Amino acid sequence: MPAIAQMSPEASALYQEACSAEHQQDLKGAIEKLEQAVKLPGADVMIYTKLAGLYSEIDNSQKALETYKKVIELKPDDAFVYISIGSIYENQGNYKEALKSYEKALDIYPEYKYNYFNIANVQYQLKDYNNAIKSYNTFLETYSQHSESRENLAASYYAVKDYDDAAKQYKILYEKNPETFKSFSQYGLALLNDNNPEKAVEMLEKAISLDSENNSAHLGLAQAYQDLGKNDLSYEQYQIVLAKVPNLNTVRLDYANLLADMNKNTEAITQYNMYIKAFPNDINGYKNIANVYKTLSNYDKALENYLIAETKDSADINIKKNIALCYHNKKDYANALKYYDIILTSQPDDYNMQVNKALALHALKRYDEAIAMYENLLPVKNDKTLKDNLNNARVARGHELIEAKNYGSAIENFKTAIKDGYTDGFVYYGLAKAYRATGDNTKAAENYEKAISIDPDKTAYSAEYSEFISSLYKPKVNVQQTQGTNKEDLPSINLTIDDVDKTPAVNSNEIKTNTQATESPVTPTVSVVSKQNEELISEGDKNYKNNNYDAAVQNYQEALQLVPNDAVTLLKLGNIYKLKEDNTKAVNYYQKSIIVNPDYTDGWFNLGLAYANENNLIESQKSFEKVISLDSNYNFGYAYYALGLALEQQGKTEDAIKNYKLFIKYNNDKNMIDTVETKIKQLQKS
Length: 686
Fold this sequence. Notes:
Distance between the termini: 113 Å
Shape: elongated
Structural class: mainly alpha
Radius of gyration: 46 Å
Strand content: under 5%
Number of helices: 36
Mean pLDDT: 87
């Protein structure tokens, strides 16, 4: 390069020699010549510029910077010198100083658009992604085909979670040259976060095909599969990553969520606990593990974790709802009610929480408050279950009022429930008790009969009715002294709530089909009752012998309405149901026979046989043991034989043999004895 006018002849000569040395790749020699030149008087800015550039080429950044600063002293408006200085700072990782230099160059020479690429790159390194995005876009307005800047722009969009624009930039790059495109992982993750899991799967699978060790792609693919409901494929991807990086705790929350979705609850709990240990301040770990425990009905552990979550975010109303529901399902209605009140203070129109509060009040026997809430809720949603709850509360309150001797209010509650559609026999039983207490025997008898006709299996109704009839022919007693309500007779209410988004279900009592009122009864004498009972049993026995079982059942049940505590008749009903292969009802009636008469050996023995039919060997064993305790020689020792069979089937060989031997002691049937002796020998050999 020829010397310019300001350069001295000596300096110009050295400059020319330096250029020749540089041309011959003798950078050291070129630098020596220029270092001599800058020591001469009249050294030109061109010499300093050339020297600074050569220092940069040999990576002597410090001398290059010092020399460029001398250039700036001589020529302060040279934008490219500032760009060169910025480049040195950028290579050193001193991005703040690099940015200052690039921005100074931009102030001096704004028309040089390529400088926006320099500025954008430094802003990207400083994680100033929003300004980097502006700079990259400005640069691309002029250099639209510049792939590196577009890729960095896409990464900047991804960094600020603008996944839509990130995906658009990657799409441009991919469609421009799919053969050379390499950013499949980044593109796939952007698509995944932009709620396009199907396209994300395509890109992430390509990323893994290029690099099977790309854990980010594996994890992104796991999430994409999970979003598409392909849980088994998602599970495989998580397994690949965790096998390689077992301590990768950052992904355990998502992995645990997948396991919970797959109903692998035990594994999910293990993963949640590992995540919580690694990140004890993340509320999501506690909430999600609590959700799994709630699904498993482990309400104690669910509460433990929901309560921790509540301490971390006391404003989260959904956490409070789950806490309330867990308390409710634990039947801790007092604490459930406390949370319902808190929730309804914040969300007074939450229908489900209002229903749940009414249920809690109902369960706490705060019937008047529950009734008021049910009545307020029904106009909002005319729900049959809610209506049943209301009537159950009215009937329960009615019985409570009977205990308080407030018979008028009790009758009012019962009548309101009936008017509103309540048909269970318990309401008529309550009316019978209230009318009996007020001395209205006709209405009392009428309602006893209604209760019995609706619920013929409720022996308490028929027993009290029989006692009432008998009392009419005894010296008058204080009619106020009615029997108390058995807690087991209260209207049933199912207070288990499965989901915060569902209206909780409450089961009403089973309703029979016969709801017709009977005529006012003609009061019979005790002897008439006894005679009717005998006739019904006799008729039932005839039907039983003729295999007319349905008619026999009807005869025996009618007899029980007159004399409900007849253990033999109850046993006969059990026998019929056993013959009809309705083992559940057979067990029910056998149980009733021994409740009526706890020493009834036939009842215990038949109950043991019925349990054996159900393969309930433990209860069968207990029943036969009870028979033996009552009568060791029962039925010529057959209780020992039956007990031996129950024990043998449980694998209790020694005890079985012992009882078989006792059977032989009490029995005199030679064929049967031979059979049992053979069984004993076989058991002793095994």
